[in-house]
């Protein structure tokens, strides 16, 4: 039983881990894009970038963000809300190992 | 030890401070006292710290940030008008190497960041620099007596709190050095104190010394100047209470511009005397524990040495105990009669009764911000409140906020309704009107509770070992009043959350009203400095919420700047009186507003007496002179209006609205 349990738990855990890291990567993508957008906004405010450059960059970043969303929806993954969120996956039995 | 005058050996020099609401005659009384002290053979320095200087007007001399000698019969009189921005620049230039060193040791900023930091303008530079400048001038001129003419009330209180703030800054700078000192010791180097240590020690010593001096009644005296009016008494009471609380008690109170006994048969003067007699009775009761001096009103506004000598003579001759000549009035039968009710004089309407066409010129549809400003005591608050009332009456669909930003509030007293630091309906006024008296101290405390930790952390990120920068937030920052007004305007007008169509702003007297208008640019420079730091160090510290908030703030500030410069959206009404000192200050105000590109739709000449009695309000003849003289400073499209004199001054919703209907245009 112990073997079945650990296989089963281990198997589920493996899958969940994969999902979590995939979500993580996407979030990181999204987060870094958002950070890039914020950086551009800062540059615009400081006059280091003109409106035109900013508009072009903003279009590009927003397009990439949209792509990510569409991929997520297509793959049925959790859609990320604007504020971003942390995926908190814990497993029973973690403490045992 | 600059406070010790070299010529006087070990004897310390005396400090005399004059405070009071704007327009009560602080500058005149201070100048008169300084002149008198010089003419008994002393060496005297008088310094004005009000950013809107009028000391030069009172002395009839052209003054600057450096002492100028004023001709005297005996002794020496030196006078200066503090120039805060250039004083700050000079101080930073002089101590730049040391400041650079402290910043380099105490923060993680590189040379370029430090250099930019050292060039930033500071809010509240007037109060911050005042003591260091007075100290410097006192030392350089070796004067035995120093007279300080302060800015109107609220800023006097800030000024008096400043030495303590300076001392805390010195402590924080010292802690920034601490880490460097410890490291040097650990590596066994016997570290010699250098220039930066000397600067910190000097700052610490000087601020402690000034603080001690201010609290020593043998060295410092505080003189409060007020008018024989109920409103002035209310404000004086509040101010004296806060001064007592901070351990700087006022012993002498000058009641200025008391009507002399021989004023002829002018009916307005008679009304004024009734109100005044009652006010003086209340003053004697409320301020029984202070030394009261009564100075009668002069026939002409005192300017120049001859007139100032007269003022001082009256002040020193004035008996301070009740029953002196001030009290003699009651005996002569002026008191007592008709004091039961308010002497509600009917305001003389001329042809323009109820003609409010000027209302649209001052506040066309779509206007978001209308400032009322001018020299202290000209009646800014009364005009702003009366205007807001008739506007709300005339345009019932509009949501109007009457916002008092003068830290020494008087809107509630003028409207005769209770108000506070929230937007309240005004009893008896149209439903569309709300009024609020901004409380900067409270707003700061609330902000500190909400964001203090985050702000401390943000600064701490760039500061070695935290350096106790968070503690800075325990202090009232210089320029706080203007900063809080700025934040409130952003909320109410720019970010559209306030839900008001128009905000009528009752500003602090001239100098600080101009500081307020300069504030968006100053705030923007700090915002951009922080943005560029975050950009530069984003790998190390990350961008976080702060960056997003700074971007947001930058946008709002730019919107406010654009709004202030757009005559369709923001305007500034200058209030003045038909006499010399207010006229001169108004001309300077108009020039400054023009430089700031803020539109002025009208100048209101307040308290114009219809009878032409030379005493009460501005005589009709002088209004013409004022109009001609001001015409040069006026831009096209700026009207001159007059508001009639009334005694007692218009108070309460009904009388205010009635009074505003009697305003009329006297020029295009």
Folded structure, characterized:
The complex is a heterodimer of chains A (97) and B (668). Chain A has 97 residues and is mostly helical. Chain A is 71% helix and 0% strand. Chain A contains two helices and no strands. Chain B is of the alpha/beta class. Chain B is 49% helix and 14% strand. Chain B has 23 helices and 17 strands. The longest helix of chain B has 34 residues. Chain B is globular and about 85 Å long. The N terminus of chain B is likely disordered.
Descriptive labels:
heterodimer, A: 97 residues, mainly alpha, 0% strand, disordered C terminus, B: 668 residues, alpha/beta, nine-stranded mixed sheet, eight-stranded mixed sheet, 17 strands, 14% strand, globular, disordered N terminus
Q: What's the short story on this structure?
A:
With 97 residues, chain A is mainly α. Helices cover 71% and strands 0% of the residues of chain A.
SSE map:
The complex is a heterodimer of chains A (97) and B (668).
Chain A: H1 2-46, H2 51-74
Chain B: E1 14-20, H1 26-39, E2 43-48, H2 55-59, E3 68-70, E4 76-81, H3 84-94, H4 96-106, H5 111-119, H6 125-141, E5 145-149, H7 153-186, H8 195-214, E6 220-226, H9 230-245, E7 252-258, H10 267-286, E8 291-296, H11 304-317, H12 325-332, H13 357-362, E9 369-373, H14 380-394, E10 400-404, H15 411-415, E11 424-425, E12 433-437, H16 440-461, H17 480-494, E13 502-506, H18 510-536, H19 538-541, H20 544-564, E14 570-577, H21 580-595, E15 602-608, H22 620-631, E16 639-644, H23 653-660, E17 664-665
Parallel strand pairs in B: 1-5, 1-6, 2-4, 2-5, 6-7, 7-8, 9-13, 9-14, 10-12, 10-13, 14-15, 15-16
Antiparallel strand pairs in B: 3-4, 11-12, 16-17
Helix pairs in contact in B: 1-11, 3-6, 4-5, 4-7, 4-8, 6-7, 7-8, 14-23, 16-17, 17-18, 17-20, 18-20
